[in-house]
Amino acid sequence: MENGTYFYLMLFENIGYIRYAFFGLGFIVYCAIVLFNALIILAIVLERTLHQPMYILISCLSVNSVFGTAAFFPRLLTDLLSDTHSVSREACILQAFVIYSYASNENTILMLMAFDRYVAISKPLQYNNIMTPRILSFLISISCIYPMFCLCIAGILNARLTMCGNKLWKLYCHNWEIVKLSCANSIVNNVFGLFILITTVIMPLSFILYSYVKILIICRKSSLDFRRKAYQTCIPHIVILLNFSVALFCEVTLSRIANLELPIGLSVILSLEFLIVPPILDPLVYGLNFPKIRKKIIWIIKACKKL
User: Fold this and answer.
1) Are 292 and 49 contacting, i.e. CB atoms less than 8 angstroms apart?
2) What is the pLDDT of residues 227-263, one digit of tens each?
3) Of the candidates 182, 176, 180, which has an alpha carbon nearest to the alpha carbon of residue 161?
4) 6: which strand partners?
5) Is 220 helix (H, G, I), strand (E, B) or coil?
6) CB 3.0–4.6 Å: which of 5, 182, 211, 250 could bond 161 by disulfide?
7) What is the pTM of this model?
8) Residues 64-69: what's their mean pLDDT?
9) Element (H, E) at 86
10) DSSP string, 11-54
11) Closest to 102 measured CA to CA, from 251, 209, 206
12) Neighbouring-strand partners of residue 167
C-alpha cells in the first residue's frame, strides 16, 4: 500500500454468485428506507397542523436516516456488483464521517425529542413559550453541527496517520478500523474518539434516561387520562430509542472488543443493524402510531395513485 492510498473491503471477496441475491435484497431495503422516510418528511412538510416541535423532530430523524444510508447503500450495491473492492483513502474517510455523523445526530435528535416530551408533560402551560420556533431551530442546529464538527476533526486526525495495512474487514469504512491499521502513534485519535463517544452517545443517553424517569414520576401523580395521553406520545419514542441504543451498542462492542469471536455472518448483521433497522423502523413506528401523520400519508398515497 502506497502510504495508505487505497483500502480494500475484504468481506466482499469470494462471495460468488450469492452477491446478486444480496444486491437484490439491499436494493429493496434501500428503496424501502427512502420511500418510508420520504413519506414522513412530505406528510410533515405539507400538513401545516404538523408544524409543531414533536413532528418537526420526527421529520429530522427521517432526514438523518436518508442522509446516513446514502453514504452506505449506494457504495454497498456498487461493491456487490464489482470485481474490485478498493476505495480511496479520502473517499473512505468521507464515508466514515457521514455514517458516524448519522449515528451521532440520531442520538442528539432523540435527546431533543425526550426534552420536548419532558417540557410538554411537566410544563404544559409554558410549553409554547419554551419550545418556540427560534429555540427549536437553535437546538436542532447545535445537535447536528456539534457531532459533525467533532467527526470532521476525527477525520482530519485519521487522514494524518501513516498506514501500515490496507485491509478493512468491514462492509463500509470504519473510523476505528482505519486507526487500527496505522503504524503511527494514535493515542490522540483514541482519546478524541473517546471524547466523541462520551459527548455524542453517553451524555445524550443519560439525559434521555433522566427525562423519561422524570416523566414517569410526573405521570404516577397524575390522572388516568393524563397518563394515557403521555404514554401515547412517549412510547413510540422509547421504542425507537431502545432499538437504536441496542443497535449502536452492538456496533461499538464489535468494533472495540478485538477478542470477541462471533460467526462472520452474525458479526456482519450486528454491525449493520444501526444502518438498516432504525431507518426502516422509525417511519413505520411514527407513521402507524400518530394519526395525523398516518392520515396525511394516506392522502399522499391516494394523490399519487390519481396521478
Assistant:
1) yes
2) 888 888 888 888 888 888 888 888 777 766 654 566 7
3) 182
4) 88
5) helix
6) 182
7) 0.90
8) 96
9) strand 86-88
10) GGTT-TTHHHHHHHHHHHHHHHHHHHHHHHHHHHHH-GGG-SHH
11) 251
12) 8
